[in-house]
């Protein structure tokens, strides 16, 4: 068998499966990742501070 | 370099170029660039005025909503309160009316007293302090020129900041792997900073960092990461959070990670623009641009080759980095850390091995299962169909979507009571919660709330319905939306003028004890062999279909829907059986619409209401069968869009769609229309052989041709992803044999005439 001809068995999604995660444990990261997908026009992701971070 | 200039949003003002400490690891004085020796010690007022003017004109010309300004050094507090006060007032005066100004100062903390803090409080300036950890760690480098420790003074300054939490921005810690990582982390965390930055010491391939082990910096950070995780992430650590965010497709919170373009510029004490502070580690003069605030605007700086080089994302990285599996988190590391004499910045970071080890570790330790679409399901869906298992796969992901959205609404204050109950039920009565959350319009409500167009208090109604289903006792206040107290999946009480009501549930029974006369409108169901759906005429969030939804139906109207629905289902099962399994698995709800003005049919599916189809009273059962099949295609494809990328969302092409002639359609809408009209074509392909008065053959001839053309448009758009191309190829495979099926010359001519008329109508509407 030519391995390059082998068909991929699943098409992966980057959507974290939250079905078995208790509602109270859904993390901000997973929520934001999903909201970016389903609400692309909603500013759910805000960088809270200036990214610049040089120590002095 | 073919990239558009990115406007600056971060401005680092070097207000003082000297320092009262003599840290031996300082990149300003101890690394390759020695330009500080040639600059004035302090930024003159005139220079500051020019800097503010340049920032303001940049904000105006680019319409920036927010900018960040960091007062930096050297040690900025050496500029003194008077000068700093004038500069801060000038920044506020020049920018506050134009945009949101996030104003910060980074200090070593030695001079930070209450008088400085009063000044910063008056002007809302947040303060970040450099501190390398516990006493032993901090004093390894951060000493005065005479060798004295700075630790006690700095910690006292941080204690002052803790008493003014509004000003406390966080702590910045430069890593030395000779220090004890646990002691460093605990010392910093004990000061309760709102944010900790661990910074890799600036180094290049020419001047590599001390490295006692091959991945010493990763090892050091991993030890902290494990402790940070075990202790519940009690303080935000920007490096770890950035890795977690970028690993899930989000943006980095720090310039030292991620692929985002640089949007930062430095203004030195003499008014010269510099590219990035960290470049001082590369070579003498590396950050220089040759530009200054007196003669050059910021757009000129934004076009500087060195600035553009840091805005190319993946395309700006060397081949090694581009091929790396963690590049979306690492981003090649800090630009300066890639430098090597000869090859410049076209190298991996000198910390590449550490970043790879750290990111890989964090990803492995926080891996979460993700959804996927079995290849067989993708094939079935791309053929235009999809069986029970395939549609269940889509429905499973919808449950994830609703849980994510609900948790977002649950964080809102007015949702608190509902959130408390539903999380309690979720822990012990998951089936009841899932049954309510699977109601299509829960997602529509949640989306409205997150767009600030819905009432988060309705979460109590959702929780109340789940309590009823679970048979759990509950006593809570529910809210009226659109004149009803709706309990999803159960029905609605008429609210009259009441805005809220007390709901009491006990053993599956429920009532509004303070409104005993409120009329109850239970949810009714439409049934057919092997299928049962809600006839949804009470949910206030069903008004999202672009057509007016019917009000509460009379019993006679509901009975008529039942009759037509049962007959329509019989048509689907007998004549269009390929669509029945998918509908059986995914269609949960039918929303009656008002008959359209002027007659004809109306139907709709809403992206945020998976499982629901809205239909106006159809002319006959066959028409309802067609509308159910058509709209459920949209339901399936919308759910697939939620999971995988079939097209580039940034694609701006617009395309003619004969089914929506009022305006050209974006690629997502064209794909949706093709998917629905593949099924419409299929419907008429079969129907024309049954009871046909000639209409069926014309419709078949029309839609097979129009759908084929739209598939060509999709293929030629350049906007499909590889997966989207594969999906559209599946549609084409289904359609192509139909193009060879014979139709009468009369039907072909009528179809061609209709197609021409639609084109003309579209052109007229657009002119």
Please characterize this protein's 3D structure.
The complex is a heterodimer of chains A (56) and B (767). Chain A has 56 residues and is of the alpha+beta class. Chain A has one helix spanning 28-38, and one strand at residues 10-16. Chain A is extended, with a radius of gyration of 18 Å. In chain B, the strands form 5 sheets. Chain B has a 9-stranded mixed beta sheet, covered by helices on one side. A 5-stranded mixed beta sheet of chain B has the order 17-18-19-21-20. The mean pLDDT of chain B is 94. In chain B, helix 14 (375-382) crosses helix 15. Chain B has 767 residues and is of the alpha/beta class. In chain B, 50% of the residues are buried. Helix content of chain B is 44%, strand content 14%. The longest helix of chain B has 23 residues, at 388-410. In chain B, strand 5, helix 6 and strand 6 (196-199) form a beta-alpha-beta unit. Chains A and B meet through strand 1 and helix 1 of A and strand 2, strand 3, strand 4, strand 5 and helix 8 of B.
SSE-based structural type of chain A? alpha+beta
Tell me which oligomeric state these chains represent: heterodimer
Pick out the low-confidence regions of chain A.
Answer: 1-7, 43-50
Name the CATH homologous superfamily of the domain at 10-185 and 194-221 and 262-312 in chain B: Aldolase class I
Write down the overall mean pLDDT of chain A: 70
Give unreliable regions of chain B as ranges. Answer: none
Tell me the span between the first and last alpha carbons of chain B: 39 Å
Order of helices and strands of chain A: EH
The number of helices of chain A is 1
Describe the biggest sheet of chain B? 9 strands, mixed
CATH topology of the domain at 10-185 and 194-221 and 262-312 in chain B: TIM Barrel
Which percent range fits the helix content of chain A? 10-25%
Shape of chain B: elongated
Strand content of chain B: 5-15%
Strand order of the largest sheet of chain B: 6-5-4-3-2-1-7-8-9
CATH architecture of the domain at 10-185 and 194-221 and 262-312 in chain B: Alpha-Beta Barrel
Please, how many helices of chain B?
A: 26
Overall average pLDDT of chain B: 94
Which of globular, elongated, flat, extended, rod-shaped describes the shape of chain A?
A: extended
């Amino acid at each position: 068998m030519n391995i390059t001809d082998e068909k991929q068995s699943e098409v992966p999604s980057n959507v974290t499966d939250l079905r078995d995660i208790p509602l109270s444990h859904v993390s901000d990261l997973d929520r934001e990742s999903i909201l970016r997908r389903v609400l692309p026009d909603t500013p759910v992701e805000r960088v809270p501070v200036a990214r610049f971070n040089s120590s002095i | 370099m073919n990239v558009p200039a990115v406007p600056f949003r971060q401005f680092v003002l070097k207000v003082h170029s000297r320092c009262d400490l003599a840290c031996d690891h300082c990149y300003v004085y101890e690394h390759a660039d020695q330009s500080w020796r040639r600059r004035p010690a302090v930024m003159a007022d005139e220079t500051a005025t020019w800097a503010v003017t340049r920032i303001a004109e940049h904000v105006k010309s680019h319409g920036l909503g927010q900018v960040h300004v960091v007062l930096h050094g050297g040690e900025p507090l050496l500029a003194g309160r008077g000068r700093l006060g004038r500069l801060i007032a000038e920044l506020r005066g020049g920018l506050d009316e134009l945009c949101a100004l996030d104003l910060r100062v980074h200090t070593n903390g030695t001079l930070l007293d209450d008088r400085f803090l009063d000044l910063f409080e008056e002007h809302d300036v947040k303060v970040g302090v450099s501190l390398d950890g516990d006493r032993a760690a901090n004093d390894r480098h951060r000493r005065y020129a005479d060798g004295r420790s700075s630790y006690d003074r700095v910690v006292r300054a941080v204690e002052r900041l803790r008493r003014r939490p509004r000003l406390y921005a966080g702590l910045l810690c430069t890593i030395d792997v000779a220090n004890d990582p646990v002691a460093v982390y605990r010392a910093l965390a004990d000061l309760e900073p709102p944010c900790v930055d661990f910074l890799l010491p600036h180094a290049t391939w020419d001047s590599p960092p001390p490295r006692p082990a091959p991945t010493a910096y990763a090892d050091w950070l991993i030890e902290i990461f494990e402790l940070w995780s075990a202790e519940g992430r009690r303080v935000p650590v920007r490096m770890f959070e950035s890795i977690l965010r970028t690993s899930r497709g989000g943006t980095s919170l720090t310039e030292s990670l991620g692929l985002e373009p640089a949007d930062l510029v430095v203004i030195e004490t003499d008014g010269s623009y510099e590219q990035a502070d960290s470049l001082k580690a590369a070579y003498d003069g590396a950050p220089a641009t040759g530009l200054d605030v007196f003669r050059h605007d910021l757009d000129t700086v934004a076009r500087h080759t060195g600035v553009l080089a840091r805005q190319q994302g993946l395309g700006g990285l060397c081949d090694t980095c581009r091929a790396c599996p963690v590049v979306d988190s690492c981003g090649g590391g800090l630009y300066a850390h890639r430098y090597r004499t000869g090859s410049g910045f076209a190298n991996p970071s000198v910390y590449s091995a550490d970043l790879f080890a750290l990111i890989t570790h964090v990803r492995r330790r926080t891996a979460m299962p993700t959804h996927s679409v079995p290849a067989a399901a993708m094939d079935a869906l791309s053929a235009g169909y999809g069986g029970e298992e395939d549609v269940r796969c889509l429905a499973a992901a919808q449950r994830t979507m609703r849980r994510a959205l609900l948790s977002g609404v649950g964080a809102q204050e007015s949702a608190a009571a509902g959130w408390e109950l539903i999380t309690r039920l979720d822990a012990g009565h998951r089936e009841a919660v899932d049954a309510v959350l699977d109601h299509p319009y829960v997602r529509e409500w949640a989306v409205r709330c997150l767009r600030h167009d819905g009432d988060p208090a309705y979460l109590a109604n959702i929780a109340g319905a789940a309590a009823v289903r679970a048979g759990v006792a509950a006593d809570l206040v529910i809210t009226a939306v659109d004149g009803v107290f709706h309990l999803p999946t159960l029905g609605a009480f008429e609210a009259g003028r009441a805005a809220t009501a007390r709901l009491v549930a006990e053993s599956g029974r429920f009532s509004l004890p303070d409104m005993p006369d409120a009329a109850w409108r239970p949810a009714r169901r439409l049934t057919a062999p092997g299928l049962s759906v809600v006839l949804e005429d009470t949910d206030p969030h069903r008004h999202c279909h672009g057509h007016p939804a019917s009000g509460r139906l009379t019993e006679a109207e509901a009975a008529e829907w039942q009759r037509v629905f049962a007959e329509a289902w019989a048509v689907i099962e007998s004549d269009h059986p390929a669509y029945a399994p998918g509908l059986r698995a995914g269609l949960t709800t039918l929303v009656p619409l008002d008959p359209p003005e002027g007659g004809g049919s109306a139907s709709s599916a809403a992206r945020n209401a998976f499982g629901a189809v809205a239909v106006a009273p159809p002319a006959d059962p066959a028409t309802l069968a067609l509308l159910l099949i058509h709209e459920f295609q949209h339901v399936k494809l919308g759910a697939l869009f939620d999971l995988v990328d079939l097209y580039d969302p940034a694609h701006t092409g617009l395309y003619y769609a004969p089914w929506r002639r009022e305006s050209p359609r974006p690629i997502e809408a064209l794909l949706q229309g093709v998917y629905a009209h593949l099924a419409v074509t299929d419907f008429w392909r079969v129907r024309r052989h049954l009871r046909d008065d000639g209409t069926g053959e014309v419709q078949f001839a029309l839609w097979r041709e129009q759908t084929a053309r739209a598939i060509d448009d999709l293929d030629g758009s350049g906007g499909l992803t590889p997966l989207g191309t594969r999906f559209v190829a599946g549609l084409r495979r289904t359609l192509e044999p139909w193009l060879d099926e014979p139709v009468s010359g009369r039907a072909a001519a009528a179809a061609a005439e209709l197609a021409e008329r639609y084109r003309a109508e579209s052109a007229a509407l657009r002119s």
